[in-house]
Each structure stands twice: as structure tokens, then as C-alpha cells.
Amino acid sequence: MELNRRAGHQGTGPGAVTPDGCAVELYARLPVGAEPDIVAGAVSPGAHILELGCGAGRVTHPLLERGFTVTAVDESQEMLDRMRGARAIRSAIEDLDLGESFDVVMLASFLVHAADVEVRRALLRTCVRHLAADGCVLIQREGEDWHTNLPRERVDPGGFTVRIVSAEPTGDGANSVHAEYEFPDAVWTQTFVSRPLTDEQFEEALAEVGLKVDRYLTEDKTWARSRAFRTKEAP
Predict the structure, then answer these.
(1) What is the pTM of this model?
(2) Closest to 27 in 3D by CA, of 39, 38, 11
(3) 97 and 67 in one domain?
């Protein structure tokens, strides 16, 4: 098992674990949710999507099936080895500079909630750096009570249980979150550090890099579509 290499992040369970605590086999097993439908309803048919933090392709593959072209980026080669049909690029998101622009840049998996504010800015700057002039950035956010309504448990129709066990304050506005995934044949855990963002804080974070929310795509505001309001990213 690959050992955790990012402070505050760790994972346990069978198979390789990425630097941010994601177990590759777990993410390969997780079923797709509403994400592909949300994306398809927010962008033009056949758009070229830059998916940042694609993991094992849980969302990538359904997007390909819907006729989108996807360039999929992840820092874990073990994750990318599960990818089928997409152009796959191994890179840390913060460092990515492909010299290309895309119709859609997608930052899902709550990555915008990075505990380190400078990391968050770097992630969003990568989005802006790769955005076509008339393109959009799709961002997935945590729910409003995600850190407070705990512990909570959900039994998936696929026969496994997801538990968000705790969210303990780290003292600087972020929380250390502990999650468990229990399957009939295996158990995985993941601990990571996340910074809650109110709507106002989220929109301020976007404004720092020249983005503005164009529309919230879900009633709970967990998905947002944003567009650039400046021609250049923030310094």
C-alpha cells in the first residue's frame, strides 16, 4: 500500500493509496451519481472538458459515453491506470500548464475546499489558465451542513455503507474529516483536511482569480458554474 505523503491526509484499506488518502480500489468501485447529468445539463453537447482530479474515471467514463471529449488529470498513476478512452495526464493540478484552452474545466470532488488557502488559489488559477474565452468552470462544493450534521451514515443501493464519522477543528478554520466505506468484502477509511466555505466565502475565492458564479446548478448549491470576468488570471 502506498503511504500517505500529504500532511493531514491518510487512507487505509486494500490496495494503493494516493498522497491525499484516496484508496484506488475504493474509488474504482464507487458508483457514479448525478454528476454526469449535472455536467451535461450545464454545457454544450460535445464540449471538450478538462477534468481536474479525475481519479479512476468514475465521472470521466459516463461523460465520454455522453459524447464529450475529456482530458483527464490526476497526480496518481494508479488512478490513471483505471482510465479508459480519455486522454490521461499525470500531474499535480496546481502545477498543470498544458498551453491549451478548454470549453469546460471541471474541479469536482470538493477540491475547492483545500485547507491551505494558497493551494486553493493555485487550483483555481489552473482552472482559469486553461479556460477558453467563452468557456466555463464547473465546481463541486460541500453541502451546507456537511461538517456539522455528524456522524451520519448512508447505505448505498450497491450494497456498501458510507459513514462520515467526524470533522474535528484544526484550529485555523479547517476541519480534519474522517470517513469510512464498508463493503461486504473490504473496509476503507480516509482522513483529510477540508475548509468549509459559505456561499460568500466561495464566491470571494472565485473572485480572487477572476471568476464569477454564473449559475448554481443544484438546489443545494453543491455544483456551480462560473465564468471569467477578467481576461487574465489574478497574480
Answers:
(1) 0.93
(2) 11
(3) yes
